[in-house]
Structures are given as C-alpha cells and as structure tokens.
Amino acid sequence: MTPPRPRHDRGLVRPYVVTEGRAHPTRNTLDLVALVTAVPDRPLNGLSPEKRRAIELCRPGALSVAEMAGHLALPMSVTKVLLSDLVDSGHVHVRPPVPKAQLADARLLQEVLDGLRSRF
Amino acid sequence: MGSAPVSDPVDPIDPIYVSDTVTTAIKILVVGHFAVGKTTFVGTLSEIRPLRTEETMTQAGEFVDDLTGIPDKTTTTVAMDFGRLTLNESLVLYLFGAPGQKRFTQLWQDMLNGALGALVLTDTRRLDQSFDIMGLLEEHGMPYAVAVNQFDGAPMFPEAEIREALDLLPETPLVTCDAREATSGAGALISLIEYLQTRTPQEQG
Ligand SMILES: Nc1nc2c(ncn2[C@@H]2O[C@H](COP(=O)(O)OP(=O)(O)OP(=O)(O)O)[C@@H](O)[C@H]2O)c(=O)[nH]1
Ligand SMILES: [Mg+2]
C-alpha cells in the first residue's frame, strides 16, 4: 500500500517560515561539502532571521554546507534552500568541492592517502 | 516547528573555520546498521566537534517542512553525523555517518553525490543487517570497503567466513577496526583509499 502523500492532502498549508514556502526547491544542487563564505558588505535589510544567522555564521571564514546546517540547527534540506537563495541574492559565495571528473583522479587519491598516513 | 532538528536551537559552539588555503573538499560515507559505531567512528577521527543534523521525512522518503496534518506514524527522523579532517593545507575530508534506510531519500542522494567511497561498518553478531546498505551502495555504483567493529563478546570468525556471509566480491577490502581508536579508524579509511586506487587508471609519469 502506498502511504498517502500528505503534502497534497493538507487543505490549509501553514507558510513555511524558514524557507519562505519553498519546500521543493528547483535548485537542489548544492553539494554538502561545498564551502560557503559570506560576501562582504552586502546589506542585510529585508532578510529573514535565519538568513541573517547564516550570513553571520560564515562571515569569519568558510564552512561546508553540512557544517552550516549543523551550526544553524536546521535540517540539511532547509539549509540548502536558504543558501541557494543567498547565492542568488549575492550574499554568500559557494565554492564547489571538486569537479566530478577529478574525483577518481590518481593524484587526489594519493593526496588523501598521504594526508591520512601523516596524521595518524 | 516540527522539523526543528537538534535539541539546542542555537549552537553554542564557536565554529572552527576551514582554513583559507583549502581549495578542495571531499567526502567519505561511514555507514552501517543501528548501533554499529558510526557516530563513534566519525567522532574519533574528526578534528572538529562532530555535528549532527536531523531530517523529518515522510515514509515515502520526502522531506517534511511542516508537520501540520501529518500523523506521527507516517514520519521518521533521519540523523546524520559528520566530522572534518584537514589532510593538507589545500584539502579537507568530511566524514558523513548515516544509518542504512529502506527507502532512498534526498539526504542519501546528497551524501552519495560526489562521495569518494563508503566504509561499511559491521558487527559479527548482525552481519545480515548490513545487506540493505551494501545493496544500496552497489545500486548507486558507490565503491566501499567493509570494516568489522569487534565488539566485546562478539564472536570472532575467520575472514573467509565473514566474506562468505556478506557475499563480498574478492576485491572488496575487509578489515577489522575499533571505532574508538583513531589509528584503527584511519587504517580502515586507508584500506578504502588503497582499494579506490586499484580502480583508477594509473597515471603515467
Ligand atoms: N568494542 C567496540 N565498541 C564500539 C565500537 N564502536 C562503537 N562502539 C560502542 O558501541 C556503541 C554504539 O556506538 P555508536 O557510535 O553510537 O553507534 P551508531 O552506529 O552511531 O549508532 P546509531 O546512530 O544509533 O545507529 C557505543 O557504546 C560505542 O562506544 C568498536 O569499534 N568496538
Ligand atoms: Mg549514531
């Protein structure tokens, strides 16, 4: 039996406070380890408290999308929506982690191995 | 707010930022059944206090942003722990610890996306509970190594028997590890990376 799909069943949908109504963002492309930093000197007026908190959090330095979610105490899904919006509005900068083609790159793997061996 | 995740709404811990010199971030998954040692593993190796997020999902595996009108039984909470390890001045490794799940979710998609590989933690008392997760990784073409966490009082089996019970491919690494010890955990990750190297065309010169 397929369970009912609740989001179609709700008559009155409470506004999604945090993501401003976008539970299913079209842009769901942010990588969990993309590195996020605040763009300096952007005006914050009109931004939700969560967005302000997100900007403040990554003002001093870079954090991954996942770490942002952890520190903001928000679910990953919600954090991704917030950050996508902040990228669009020019408030944060996101550095993609590593191009896919390079993931299995022999040099990258060797660097990981050397790093692990030297640390432990 | 139904989806508010962690007990403490404002994280009191000052974040430790990723160094300015870092240009590349990679991730490895640490997966396995209930209570197998995922959180311990990530915590032992992480240089930051491990972080955790929780997602509320419907049984159908969709994110829930608003619990209005959704009876409790149709939602489940999925928790994920993660930690960070700086490997050199330009490279950081993130470890994501997450439980196996019957249903594939966006969170799983996000974790798998771009991951180098996975370490499957297992326990000799419950080897069969690792099948779902190994199947999921295989379905998504995610290479993995298996690490047996030797719990006190758990039976010890010869490697060949564990391989057979788990139906491992001959090339899949199988190691034992103690998730409570950093060198042991790092050793398991090293086995995974060495395995990944064998799957990569070697660079000449
Ligand atoms: N002997 C032994 N005990 C371990 C090891 N790893 C974890 N433990 C213990 O096993 C218990 C469960 O470990 P967790 O790290 O919480 O396991 P988990 O997989 O995160 O559990 P869930 O998130 O609840 O699924 C803890 O009491 C750990 O101290 C190990 O390698 N050896
Ligand atoms: Mg855990």
UniProtKB/TrEMBL annotation, chain A:
Pfam families: DUF742. It comes from the Bacteria. This is DUF742 domain-containing protein. PANTHER family: DUF742 DOMAIN-CONTAINING PROTEIN (PTHR36221). It comes from Streptomyces piniterrae.
TrEMBL record, chain B:
Belongs to the GPN-loop GTPase family. Gene3D superfamilies: P-loop containing nucleotide triphosphate hydrolases. This is ATP/GTP-binding protein. PANTHER family: ATP/GTP-BINDING PROTEIN-RELATED (PTHR42708), GLIDING MOTILITY PROTEIN MGLA (PTHR42708:SF1). The keyword GTP-binding applies. Keywords: GTP-binding, Hydrolase, Nucleotide-binding. The keyword Nucleotide-binding applies. GO terms for molecular function: GTP binding; hydrolase activity. It comes from the Bacteria. It holds the Pfam family ATP_bind_1.
